[in-house]
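Incident log, support desk, overnight shift.

02:14 A customer reports that sequence design results differ from what the structure should imply. Their input is reproduced verbatim below. On-call engineer (initials T.W.) acknowledged and began investigating.
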């Protein structure tokens, strides 16, 4: 009679070079999930294999694709052993090469029970939503959470629209923009989610204010204003002396919001602070005296005094805006490593980021 030995799957070790940090991956975990659970600032954004933020080189070892990398990666990248950590499970001990890996310690994401306790109209298609949690959550300004509702398939990711608190936050605020045809936002804007119980997973995301002494350029579009406000309100509490210009790209005057909070940031900011709203579809015969057009074009003419070898750029909003602004600031001489972006995708991109 043949004897069969069934071995229990074992944890695998992941090493990140050149940072030299290591952590274990449990059976069934993605490499990204394991790294975040260990508190490491793993590069990521969407977490579902769509944005490509988590791609890196597999230097040694073997992985199993949770979904086909070819949906996101180019043929040349696949041939060069580039993988997506959010869609890779370790089949052996592995070594990954992630240049510029940041050793910042993040709060590992957890699951929370939440309840929508208040909503407030900010514009015709954007709401501020307040969610009470079953216990305090700690996070970094600029990060986001995933929101689950039992009657709606999948999770939606929304950025904190508030600064963190040292003791954690029992209530969190989110800016949520209505997406045409969006299942979650459709119910929210129809007032069908008042007092609704939701699941919250977080915090997540690699969007936070990096250390530095140089100028700061922030660009937000639509509900992408949330992480920018979170980041700047938190930074305004400290003495840093860094000049900052904040661009807000909107369609018309009716789409501008949060202006009082931005004014308060300017009043508290330790250094020069400039707010530049840019309207792309404001009627020509209106009383608007500010800039018109697209925000990337406005940056070319309005950001000159904020450009230096140490300038950091923070971008939040829809992919076309992020891509256009990135191209612009690179042409202006900003180093690629100093550009930090959070693309707000929706279900049309294969991910429920904002619908």
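02:41 Re-run completed on a clean worker. Output:
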């Amino acid at each position: 009679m043949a004897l069969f030995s069934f071995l229990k799957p074992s944890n695998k070790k992941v090493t990140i070079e050149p940072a030299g940090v290591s952590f274990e991956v449990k059976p069934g975990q993605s490499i990204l999930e394991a790294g975040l659970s260990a508190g490491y600032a793993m590069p990521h954004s969407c977490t579902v294999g769509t944005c490509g933020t988590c791609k890196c080189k597999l230097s040694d070892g073997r992985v199993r694709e949770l979904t086909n990398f070819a949906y996101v990666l180019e043929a040349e990248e696949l041939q060069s052993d580039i993988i997506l950590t959010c869609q890779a499970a370790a089949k052996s001990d592995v070594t990954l090469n992630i240049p510029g890996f940041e050793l910042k310690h993040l709060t590992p994401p957890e699951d929370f029970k939440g309840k929508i306790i208040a909503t407030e109209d900010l514009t015709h298609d954007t709401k501020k939503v307040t969610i009470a949690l079953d216990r305090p959550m700690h996070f970094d300004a600029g990060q986001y959470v995933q929101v689950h509702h039992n009657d709606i398939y999948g999770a939606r990711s929304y950025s904190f629209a508030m600064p963190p608190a040292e003791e954690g936050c029992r209530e969190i605020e989110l800016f949520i923009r209505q997406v045409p045809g969006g299942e979650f936002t459709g119910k929210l804007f129809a007032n069908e989610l008042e007092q609704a119980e939701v699941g919250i997973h977080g915090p997540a995301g690699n969007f936070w204010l990096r250390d530095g002494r140089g100028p700061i350029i922030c660009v937000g579009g639509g509900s992408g204003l949330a992480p920018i406000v979170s980041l700047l309100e938190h930074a305004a509490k400290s003495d840093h002396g860094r000049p900052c210009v904040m661009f807000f790209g909107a369609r018309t005057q009716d789409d501008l919001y949060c202006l009082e909070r931005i004014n308060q940031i300017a009043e508290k900011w330790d250094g020069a602070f400039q707010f530049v709203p840019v309207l792309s579809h404001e009627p020509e015969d209106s009383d608007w005296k500010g800039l018109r057009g697209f925000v990337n074009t406005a940056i070319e003419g309005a950001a000159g005094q904020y450009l230096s070898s140490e300038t950091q750029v923070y971008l939040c909003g829809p992919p076309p805006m992020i891509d256009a602004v990135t191209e612009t600031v690179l042409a202006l001489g900003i180093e690629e490593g100093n550009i930090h972006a959070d693309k707000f995708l929706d279900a049309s991109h294969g991910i429920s980021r904002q619908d």
